[in-house]
Amino acid sequence: MTEPKSAGAKEVWITGIGIVSSLGEGLDAHWDALSAGKINIDEKRFAPYIVHPLAPVTFDAQIPKKGDQRQMEAWQRIGTYAAGLALDSAGLKGNKEILGRMDMIVAAGGGERDIAVDAAILSADARGNSSPGFLNERLMNDLRPTLFLAQLSNLLAGNIAIVHGVCGTSRTFMGEEAASIDAARIALARIEAGQSDIALVGAAHNGERSDLLVLYEFGDFNLTEKFSPVWQREDRSGFALGSAGCFLVLEAREHAEARGAKPYAKLTKVVADLAQRKQPGAVTKSLEALWPKLGIVDDSGTLITGATGVEPVTSDEKAFLRQHPGFAVRATGTIFGHTLETQFPLGLALAALSISRGALFPPNDPTGLEVEKAGSPDQIVVVGAGHWQGEGMALVEAIK
Amino acid sequence: MSAPRDKLGRPIVVVTGMGVVTSLGAGKQDNWAKLTAGESGIRTVTRFPIDGLKTTMAGTVDFVTVDPFSSTGLTERLAEMATGEALEQAAIGARADFPGPLFLAVAPVEVEWPQRLELGRAVGRTEFGYEDMLRVSGGGRFTAYHRRFMFGSIASHLAETFGTKGSPISLSTACASGATAIQLGVEAIRRGEADAALCVGTDGSVNPEAMVRFSLLSALSTQNDPPQAASRPFSKNRDGFVMAEGAGAMVLESYESAIARGAKILGVVAGCGELTDSFHRTRSSPDGKPIIGCMRKTLADAGLEPEQIDHINAHGTATPENDKMEYNTTAVVFGEHLPKIPVSSNKSMVGHTISAAGAVEAVFSLLTLEHQRIPPTINYEIPDPAILFDVVGNKARDAKVTAVMSNSFGFGGQNASLILTREPV
Question: What is its EC number (chain B) (predicted)?
Answer without folding.
Answer: 2.3.1.41
